[in-house]
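User: Structure with adenosine-5'-triphosphate, C-alpha cells only please.
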Amino acid sequence: MRLPEGAAFILERLKSHGYASYVVGGCVRDALMGLEPKDFDVCTSALPDQMQAVFADCRVIETGLKHGTLTVLYDHVPYEVTTFRVDGAYTDHRHPDGVTFVSDVTADLSRRDFTVNAMAWNPETGLVDAFGGQEDLNRKLIRCVGDPETRFGEDALRILRALRFAAVYGFAIEEKTAAAIHDLKGTLKDVAAERIRVELAKLLCGRAAEDILRRYSDVIFTLMPPLSPMLGFDQRTPYHRYDVWEHTIRALAAAPATETLRLTMLLHDSGKPDSFTLDENGVGHAHGHPKRSAEIARDVLTQLRVDNATLDRVLLLVANHDYPLTPDRRIILRRLNRFGEEVLRQLIEVHRADGMGKGTVSEELVEDWAQTMRRALDTVLAEKPCFTLKDLAVNGSDLLTAGIPKGKAVGQCLQCLLEQVIDGKLPNDREALLSAAPGCLE
Ligand code: ATP
Ligand code: MG
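Assistant:
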C-alpha cells in the first residue's frame, strides 16, 4: 500500500514516540480494491493529550478531541487521527452514551460497521484483518462486524450505509446482514435527517443503485413513505413496459450520477398513482402527474432536510420532466428563455433517462435523440443568440426615449420584441427593434 507523504509522516511520528498507529477504514478498503483512496484516516494507541503532545509543532484542529479525534494538517491536507476506542452503550439507536479509549487495534476495529471497513494497515505490521474483511472484499460482500441485529440496533444509520456500500461497489449483502436490514428498517426514523441524506445521495449515485433499489425498496419506502404506491403500479399504457417503480429505478440508473439528477428520477413519477385515470378503451393516463410528483418531492425532500438550492432544482426538473423538447432552433431558444442553459441541459438528461426506463423505445433511439438534442443546443449557443431580455439590443430606457409610455407598457413591449427576435421575425438590432416597438402596443 502506498501512503501519501502526510499519512506516512503521521504514522512515523507516532511510532517514534512509542505509540501503535495504523491507517484504517475506507482507505485500506479502497487500496485493496485497487481504487485511489479519497482520504487517509489514522488510528493510534496514543491518548488525546498524548496526540496533542506528539503533534505540538503541527497545525491541528481539536474539534473531535472528546471522542479521541485530532485533525492534523500536513501540507494543508487534513488527516483525522483517532485514539483506539470502543463505543459505550447505544440507548437511542444513534450515538454511543460515551466512548472508552483502549490500547488494542483489534478492539477498535470491532466497533466499525462492516468487515470491509474494519481493516488497518501500517508498513511494519502489514494488514490487520481480524474480521475477514479481505475475504469479504474478494467475495464482494457487505457483512456486519459481529451480530447484525446488535450492530444495527446500536446505530440505525448503518442499515443505510450497508445499502450505500453495496450500491457504490456493486457488492451483495450477506444473508444475515440483509435479513436484519429488512427487520430493523423502522429504526431509521430515529436517525438525523442530515446523516440519512448524505448516505442516500451516495447510494443513489452508486453503480448498482438500480439493483439495491429493487431489492431494498421497503427500506426506501420507510424513508420516503409517499413513494410506496409506485411499487407494482400497472400503467396500462403502450408507452410503458414496466410498473411505475420498475420504470423509476431503470430511469434513475440511466441518469448521470449526480445527486440532483438521481433524486429527480427517483421522484419524477411519484405523482402518477394519484393522477391515474383509465379511459373508455381501458388505457391508462396520468395527466398532470408532474405537478403532483413535484408536490410529493417537496414533502419528501423537506423531510430529508435537503438544502434549498438542491430542493428548488429538483422540483423544477420534476415539474418539467416531460416538457416537450425538440432539436429545433426556435424551440431551443424558447426553452433557453424559459429555463436557461444549465437547467435545459439537465432536462435533456432527464428526458433521456426517462426514455431509457420505458422499455418500449430502443435504447439506441433514445441515445440518438439525446445526442442530436445536445448538438443542436451547442450549435444554437455557439451563435451567442439572444434569448433573454438582457441579451436584447434595446432596454427599458431606450423604449422610454423612443416614446413608449412609462409603466407596464415598457415590460410588455420588451417581452414582445424578445419573442419576435426568438422567432426570427426581427433581427436583434437596435434600429429594427425601436421601429417595431410601437407595433407591440397595438
Ligand atoms: P468513504 O470512502 O465514503 O469516506 P469510509 O469507509 O471512509 O467511506 P466514513 O463514513 O468516512 O466511510 O467512515 C470512516 C470509517 O469509520 C469507516 O470505514 C468505518 O470503519 C467507520 N464508520 C463510519 N461510520 C460508522 C458507523 N456509523 N458505525 C460504525 N463504524 C463507522
Ligand atoms: Mg471516509
